[in-house]
Amino acid sequence: MGIDQNLRYGLIDQMFRSDYRWLCARVARAMGCPHGAQDIASETFVRVLDLADPSAIKEPRAMLTIIAQRLMYEGWRRQDLERAYLETLAHAPEALHPSPEERLVLIEALLEIDRLLSGLSAKARAAFLYHQLDGLTYAQIGELLQVSTSRVQQYMAEGFKRCYMARLSG
User: Fold this and answer.
1) Residue 105 falls within a domain, yes or no?
2) Which of 51, 66, 97 is the last residue of a domain?
3) Residue whose C-alpha is closest to residue 152's, from 133, 129, 124
């Protein structure tokens, strides 16, 4: 059932008071940006609020560090995806450029796709995206990736399985 809410919030409050500044300093060193570090540290504690039982945390600073590192990696990955998207968009005719709102939706969709496919090999991700986004045939993908058509089929099965499992869990 979980722990009492007052105890839960008390534990997190205590952890926040003792470790927030420490975490900000640690993240600031890694990022080189104190304002971004404060955002990451704050989001880290939001994630701690989502934990089932904060009283089970034996090494709070280690756990906070891991969560903060994951958040930094997510942020860097988002920047990389946004940069790649904007570079691609720069080559498209301006009439095809989406509105800022549509651009945000597209970037969020790219991030979700990236998250879904993150456990696949680079070739499996590429095969899945070539097929789903570019409409390439398995034979064309095999030529591009220098693999057999049957290997492309395996890559596609892996990609579809990931999407299916995400749909079941969401």
Assistant:
1) no
2) 97
3) 124
Structural contact between residues 89 and 57, judged by C-beta atoms closer than 8 angstroms: no
* 77, 159: one domain: no
Number of neighbours of residue 77 by Cβ within 10 angstroms: 14
Rounded to the nearest 10 degrees, what angle do helices 122-134 and 149-169 cross at? 80
Distance CA 49, CA 54 (A): 8
Range(s) of the domain holding residue 167: 119-170
pLDDT one-digit tens code per residue, 25-67? 999 999 988 889 999 999 999 999 888 888 888 999 999 999 9
